[in-house]
């Protein structure tokens, strides 16, 4: 999910959660960004720009993998699990198209891949 941080459009407000998907019964339809069937914009029409990338370690993810590692391999598994677990990357993107200007944040890797694919399509 994409969280709207700032918006210059009336269709998306600050704090809204947006999804990336076809929003139709056809799974092969072009991807769209929006809240529902009516409030959405085709991803290929948007200008996508990466503004910020931040790495963070999730406490719950690190603790969960640490406990699993401890159960499987003892103290060494605990240390390795804590080191390996809970890495998240949060990225902030600026999306614009005509009068729609939105700044969104996401930590979902699938959403990041879709947005970066649209970003690199514009560059090529």
For the secondary structure, the number of strands is 7
What's the helix count?
A: 2
For the largest beta-sheet, the strand count, sense and barrel status come to:
7 strands, antiparallel
Taking strands numbered 1, 2, ... along the chain, how are they ordered across the largest sheet? 4-3-2-1-7-6-5
- The radius of gyration is 18 Å
Span between N and C termini? Answer: 26 Å
- What is the chain-wise order of helices and strands? EEEEEHEEH
Q: Low-confidence segments, ≥5 residues, pLDDT <50?
A: none
- Form type: elongated
Structural class: alpha+beta
* Mean of residue pLDDT values: 76
β-strand amount: 35-45%
Helix content: 25-40%
Number of domains: 1
Characterization of the model:
33% of the residues lie in helices and 37% in strands. The protein contains two helices and seven strands; from the N terminus they run βββββαββα. The chain has helices at 59-84, 109-123; strands spanning 2-7, 17-21, 32-34, 40-42, 47-57, 87-97, 100-106. Strands 4-3-2-1-7-6-5 form a seven-stranded antiparallel sheet. A hairpin with a 2-residue loop joins strand 6 (87-97) and strand 7 (100-106). The longest helix has 26 residues, at 59-84. The model has no long low-confidence stretch (mean pLDDT 76).
């Amino acid at each position: 999910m994409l969280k709207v941080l700032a918006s210059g459009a009336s269709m998306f407000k600050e704090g809204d959660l947006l999804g990336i998907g076809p929003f139709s019964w056809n799974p092969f339809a072009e991807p769209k960004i929006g809240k529902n069937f009516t409030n959405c914009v085709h991803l290929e029409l948007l200008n996508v720009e990466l503004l910020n990338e931040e790495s963070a370690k999730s406490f719950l993810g690190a603790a969960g993998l640490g406990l699993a590692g401890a159960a499987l391999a003892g103290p060494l598994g605990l240390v390795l699990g804590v080191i390996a677990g809970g890495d998240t990357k949060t990225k902030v993107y600026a999306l614009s198209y005509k009068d729609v200007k939105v700044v969104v944040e996401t930590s979902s890797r699938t959403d990041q891949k879709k947005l970066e694919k649209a970003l690199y399509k514009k560059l090529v």
